[in-house]
Amino acid sequence: MREVQRTLDPQTLALAAVSAHAAGVPFSQKALGDLLMLIERAERIRTQQSREKNKLYALHAPEVECLSKGKARKPYEFGVKVSVAVTHNQGLIVGAKHFAGNPYDAHTLAHQLAQTNSMLDKIGVKPTTAVVDLGFRGVDQDVAPVNVIHRGKYKTLVPKEKRWLKRRQAIEPMIGHMKSDSRIDRCWLKGGLGDAIHALSCAVGYKIRWLLRAIARLGIKLVFLRLLFVAILTSIRVNFCQFGC
Questions:
Q1: Gap between the Cα atoms of 211 and 125, Å rounded
Q2: How confident is the model over 212-243, as pLDDT tens digits?
């Protein structure tokens, strides 16, 4: 009977060589801890299975998730899920929040509304209507008394609400500008805190450019009058969308 010898893959050989070399080299406590962490992550990537849950996709960023896009051109993205809340008429960003662990879209709406409420609390405004895509269906009880409008309710909507639903599509080019102008598609900050800071910073940068465009178009006096008018509104309609960054 012929003996079949199995050759080790290059990753296994490299990990064994690094581990053996590290055992005989004096490292500082921090350097040794960082090296052992990288070895542990590399071993985890080497041994994980294709259908395994909670997989590790990047050595430098363990919080990265595989996000399903559902598009033929780009079915998957690797990053962290980010939700953006935008005012319905003016297109002003009033919330940007990251979500670790790739949660279901509908489970993030209550958290995004809580952030939006906290940001608008000083001007006495609360969202009363959330115009969302179909991924947010089934959470009407969780976010009550906010009225949730999506495509699944189209037959029961009044004409005014149907116009609001069409207007929701305006958030898609805004996300494109946030990716190209604010560079939200690539985060250079470390960890979950870095993802949260990056999402908020990109939203602030978009709002500053929005304000500068409004000043150039209307003049400074009319801009502040419009902002004052927005601040004293008793209700506000907000569009929601999520994407990976």
A1: 20
A2: 887 777 777 676 666 666 665 544 455 666 66
175 with 204: CB under 8 angstroms? no
Q: What would the mean pLDDT of 152-177 be, rounded to a whole number?
A: 89
Structure tokens of 148? 């949730």
Q: How high is the pLDDT of residue 111?
A: 92
Angle formed by the axes of helices 171-180 and 191-218, to 10°? 110
Output the 3-class SS for the chain: CCCCCCCCCHHHHHHHHHHHHHHCCCCCHHHHHHHHHHHHHHHHHHHCCCCCCCCCCCCCCCCCEEEECCCCCCCEEEECEEEEEEECCCCCEEEEEEECCCCCHHHHHHHHHHHHHHHHHHHCCCEEEEECCHHHCCCCCCCCCCEEECHHHHHHCCHHHHHHHHHHHHHHHHHHHHHHCCCCCCCCCCHHHHHHHHHHHHHHHHHHHHHHHHHHHHCHHHHHHHHHHHHCCCCEEEEEEEEEC
pTM for this structure? 0.73
Q: What is the pLDDT of residues 92-147, one digit of tens each?
A: 888 899 898 888 888 899 999 999 988 888 788 888 899 998 888 888 888 888 89
Structure-block tokens of residue 93: 């960003």
CA–CA dist 15, 17 (Å, integer): 5
